[in-house]
Specification:
alpha+beta; seven-stranded mixed β-sheet; two-stranded antiparallel sheet; binds adenosine-5'-triphosphate; binds magnesium ion
């Protein structure tokens, strides 16, 4: 995969008011996510920078880079109001890979559920937006495979956006990494993914957990 890589510090700066500190907006198994703004852009236009963990000892450097690039290429190729916008693939000064995305200041749906803030109409509205995003993904040959409240973000104006394509699979059409940054091209053949279970343990359906192959 031939993907342009931008040195993070040449384009983005931390949005923290404390010099040398970063402003964190989230954390997952594979990364921490920080709030930044563009060096040559307005200070109030914010970006979420997903900084990946170090390579695991069980992974080869090639496998690790392939994983980071694949997630980037899939998310960069998507264009839908209910999918988070991916901006850049960057490398930080401490040599960590970073995906730069639009910042969703409402946080994730998990946090919103915990606050017990939503009533029936808001819940239905979120669900409809989730279905629209998922329909778009499936129409373009992408299976997300890790849909859960932590991976559903809320923008400042209350829109829901699907994020985290870390275990997504391109089941039809060319992989966007090889198709010049577009998904949904040449959708003739549907491929089965490799056997094995992916996703997040508490959200895996019992019938999937019971599967042997
Ligand atoms: N664009 C964004 N705007 C605001 N918050 C974000 C954004 N992207 C991620 N986050 C926050 O950071 C958290 C971790 O991000 P993400 O899910 O991409 O990381 P991960 O390590 O791949 O997660 P997982 O544990 O699901 O594998 C999210 O659950 C969310 O709370
Ligand atoms: Mg996640």
């Amino acid at each position: 995969m031939d993907v342009p890589v931008v040195p993070l510090s040449l384009k983005y700066a931390s949005h923290s008011h404390i010099p040398g500190k970063s402003k964190k907006c989230g954390e997952g198994v594979s990364a921490i996510v920080k709030v930044m703004h563009k060096l040559n852009g307005p200070r109030n236009e914010l970006f979420a920078v997903k900084e990946f963990r170090k390579r695991a000892q069980s992974e080869t450097p090639e496998e690790y880079i392939e994983k980071v690039n694949s997630e980037y290429c899939v998310s960069k190729s998507l264009d839908h109001p209910n999918i988070v916008v991916t901006e850049d693939l960057c490398i930080s000064t401490n040599k960590r890979w970073c995906h730069v995305m639009e910042y969703c200041s409402g946080g994730d749906l998990f946090g919103l559920i915990q606050k017990d803030f939503m009533r029936e109409p808001e819940k239905n509205c979120c669900f409809k937006q989730l279905l629209r995003g998922v329909a778009y993904l499936h129409d373009h040959g992408i299976a997300h495979r890790d849909l859960k409240p932590e991976n559903l973000l809320i923008t400042a104006d209350g829109h829901l956006k699907i994020t985290d394509f870390g275990v997504s699979e391109v089941f039809a059409g060319k992989h966007p990494g090889s198709a010049g940054i577009k998904c949904g091209m040449d959708m003739t053949e549907i491929r089965l993914s490799n056997p094995g279970i992916v996703g997040s343990a508490p959200y895996i359906a019992p019938e999937v957990q019971g599967k042997t192959g």
